[in-house]
Design a protein that fits this description.
Structural class: alpha+beta
Largest sheet: 6 strands, mixed
CATH superfamily: ph1033 like domains
Helix content: 10-25%
CATH topology: ph1033 like fold
CATH class: Alpha Beta
Order of helices and strands: EHEHEEEHEH
Shape: globular
Number of strands: 6
Number of domains: 1
Number of helices: 4
Amino acid sequence: MAKRARMYWLMKSEPDEYSIDDLQRDTDECCPRGRCSWDGVRNYQARNFMREMAVGDLVLFYHSSTKPPGVAGVAEVCRAAYPDHTQFDPKSKYYDPKSKEAEPRWSMVDLQYVEHLAFISLATLKDTPALAEMKVVQKGSRLSVQPVRKAEFKAVVKLGKGKTRVR
DNA sequence: GCCAACGTTGGC
DNA sequence: GCCAACGTTGGC
């Protein structure tokens, strides 16, 4: 596998379902390298972006469907895409009867906690000229996994006074 | 392959 | 809770 430059992403989660605090707890509890599996993505565009992720990529953890919505912290990809097991589980709300084990339709990645940021609301993101092209600030943007430019990632971390190092 | 109907997301 | 925007489904 050819090495490629680190990439940056934004992933949305409803904090009632899974928040940055949950990720921190899951990462801490399974020392030294706890993780959470990002299951349940059932959108092809989002899936395809997850399949592009590599270990070491950094992720803006976005809280959606809450008031206010916004970026709550940073996570790191610690396992590249592999089949999402919930698609084969009839009891799961993510069950997909059309997906076959031999040819899984849906993927997930594993993340680990990096840090909290001072919460950056969507309104603040929209008010920041350097972030005007981010997908998340576009009207009607529903994509739950999206790529972020390095400069945008840096600017958001700075807004949140984060310590995440971006090389 | 078109497109209307339907379901979901997610800000407000 | 509303509803606009978007994605998916399925009849034709």
